[in-house]
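Why should sequence recovery work at all? Because a backbone constrains its sequence more than one might expect. Tight turns favour small or flexible residues, buried strands favour hydrophobic ones, and helices have their own preferences. The token representation captures these environments compactly. In the example below, the structure is given first.
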């Protein structure tokens, strides 16, 4: 069965990526990120991109490679502490950054995938996050209006996929990947394993209706953000 399967990440992005697009990327730091699709996005040379992701990886890895290639003009994310180049580009005014509380970012993606244009949340009330946003009071509690996020393209990493795009994630790769997958107008998934049969419906995390293209991940290396080693105690 071939279905939505393509040969590689470059083919999956071919004809889809253009300058100025909004691209949502799954994963959390370096965990569960679509490494192959990010590399193909870098090779596409597309510029002026708005990236929606929890963070931008680290210098030289993950989404950090897009910053190095000067392809990103704006980032919607909740954390930037592991990437020095990100901080430099932001402080120099080269990069526009919209900081979004982590739970709000997750809910904005979920809302976009569910067709909900906006929602109210108390998170961020009375802080710079609330500046310029409509406010309302519910049961005596202030809340601000947040827009759902719909991306032009969503890039995700799964553990197993079938040819119709049904996806199953593994462990912390479930952070943001399912939400991102549903929020894309065009969703492209890379998977470590391609099942020769259709996945058991009871074990599917993202139904194939949300996914348009699938590739097998060629690079399956698991990057470690911070490696710490405890001093060995003397016997």
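From this structural description, the recovered sequence reads:
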């Amino acid at each position: 069965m071939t279905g939505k399967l393509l040969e590689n990440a470059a083919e999956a992005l071919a004809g889809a990526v253009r300058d100025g697009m909004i691209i949502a990327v799954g994963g959390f730091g370096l965990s569960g990120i679509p490494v192959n699709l990010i590399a193909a996005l870098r090779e596409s040379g597309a510029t002026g991109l708005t990236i929606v992701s929890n963070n931008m990886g680290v210098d030289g890895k993950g989404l950090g490679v897009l910053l190095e290639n000067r392809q990103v003009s704006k980032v919607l994310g909740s954390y930037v502490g592991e990437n020095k180049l990100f901080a430099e580009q932001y402080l120099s005014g080269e990069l526009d950054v919209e900081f979004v509380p982590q739970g709000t970012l997750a809910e904005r993606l979920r809302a976009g995938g569910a067709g909900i244009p906006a929602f109210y949340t108390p998170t961020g009330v009375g802080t710079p996050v609330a500046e310029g946003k409509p406010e309302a009071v519910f049961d005596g509690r202030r809340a601000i209006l947040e827009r759902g996020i719909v991306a032009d393209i969503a890039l995700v990493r799964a553990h197993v996929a079938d040819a119709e795009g049904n996806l199953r994630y593994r462990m912390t790769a479930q952070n943001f990947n399912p939400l991102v997958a549903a929020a894309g107008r065009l969703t492209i998934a890379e998977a470590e394993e391609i099942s020769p049969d259709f996945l058991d419906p009871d074990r599917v995390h993202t139904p194939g209706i949300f996914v348009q293209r699938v590739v097998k991940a060629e690079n399956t290396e698991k990057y470690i953000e911070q490696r710490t080693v405890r001093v060995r105690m003397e016997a």
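A few observations help interpret the result. Residues 45 and 99 are 25 Å apart (CA to CA).
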